[in-house]
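Quick one:
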Amino acid sequence: MTRSYRYYDILMVAFVATLLCADLIGVGKVTTVQGFTFGAGILFFPISYAFNDVLTEVYGYKRTRRVVWAGFAALTFAAFMCWAVLALPPAAGWKNQAAYEIAYGSTPRIVLASLAAFWAGELTNSFVLAKLKVRTEGRMLWLRVIGSTAIGEIVDTLIFYPVAFYGLWDNALLLTVMQSNYTLKVVWEVLATPVTYALVGFLKRAEQEDYFDRETDFNPFSIAT
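Output:
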């Protein structure tokens, strides 16, 4: 019998909303703070990894995999919607087409890189956390949260930046951006660990669930729960 949870659907919606906002709003802006230049979306995209950690820790890999696929579908639809809206001819007298193209006109190469990196990175994060939870018998949550994010973000970074920008950016610049952005994402996760602890503790008590993926089918292409 499939269990019903009070907060699982809420977390799924929060995950997808965070993902879409970070991808559509934050990805296009580069900012400099205290002499350090980075993509503004980095401040918010790692929140999806924090949600991934919480979902996997409480509900297990299979239910988290379903959430990741929901996010993938949302990103795919958002990319299609951006293309369709930009392709429509602007009305006479409406002068904002160029601004829309700058804000939402990602190239197919960047869209492909974003989708592939998100899917592979998030599922890697969930897989590593689930395996570490079984290996540590549920101890050392900090190790699972930080370790899984560090590995998942490596996968995300190694896919997104080369696929999106190799041959367009100088190799030295590409490596510098990859390193700085990866470091920021992992540091963000470390700083967010106390919040992750609090949310995990609340959900385990509220849901009466603390799932261990001892006999889980880790097929990344399935959406079965």
